[in-house]
Amino acid sequence: MSEEFKGKVVLVSGAGSGIGREAALLFARQGAMVFGADLSEKGLSETQELAREAAGTIQAALVDVSKETEVAALIKRIDQEAGRLDAAFNNAGITGGTFRLEDYPTDDFDRVLSVNLRSVFLAMKYELPLLKRSGGGTIVNTASVAALTGPGGMSAYAASKHGVQGLTRVAAMENAAQNIRINAIAPGWTETPMVIANSAQNPAFAELARKAIPAKRGGQPSEIAAAAVWLSSPQSSYVFGQMLVVDGGMTI
Ligand code: NAI
């Protein structure tokens, strides 16, 4: 494994599960000092245990990414403990329920927008000054193929992920000249706990979904994490403001 992130300080949100966990482990294996943020204490300690087995370290931060005071305190802590920030992967998210728009509970709509979109705004708002003081860096935000399509029943989720793409573009435009690259990833059907739980409840639907993917399988969290890590690395040094779709061909 390369030492591409040796000496770098990286923040990953949603590090207690799925895509965020795999990304945190990958950054740690490549030498980064990783701060893993999540709501789940149990998830974070499992990720830390996995990192120890791979001889890396992850600093756990119990944070609700939709709360401004908590995000501000997290960035302050990173500044105090590490003195810099080189890369952020703003990835925590939820799907919300499935309802036709006219039946969508307004409180649920607000909650999904808050966790998936407001969080990305807050994260970037507080990460950018520290990235600038560190001489530049990268941000990757997690959108979804739902940023490109209109999946029936998922108005809140699709709106939030379309919003993530918009925020990513604006932030990339505003900061490109300051040595800060900001991009997004758009995963397709990825076999994380979020999707596995839904599939267990509805196996016939899960089977149909997999068949509809040109690659005929769901993605592994590590395959999505690899794309996020690549966008955070110097290997993608001329990629600005893009949304990289990683979906087994689902949106071809
Ligand atoms: P997951 O459920 O395995 O992991 C999400 C993590 O985010 C969990 O550890 C959870 O505790 C944390 N989280 C949720 N709300 C939080 C909050 N308010 N503050 C801090 N942490 C919070 O899900 P997965 O699949 O790894 O999702 C990661 C991202 O990928 C999400 O943004 C999701 O929308 C996106 N995505 C996932 C797809 C999939 O098929 N799994 C497809 C497209 C996008």
TrEMBL record:
Similarity comment: Belongs to the short-chain dehydrogenases/reductases (SDR) family.
Keyword annotations: Oxidoreductase
Database matches in InterPro entries: NAD(P)-bd_dom_sf, Sc_DH/Rdtase_CS, SDR_fam
Gene Ontology molecular functions: oxidoreductase activity
Protein name: Short-chain dehydrogenase
UniProt source species: Undibacterium terreum
Top-rank taxon: Bacteria
Pfam families: adh_short_C2 (PF13561)
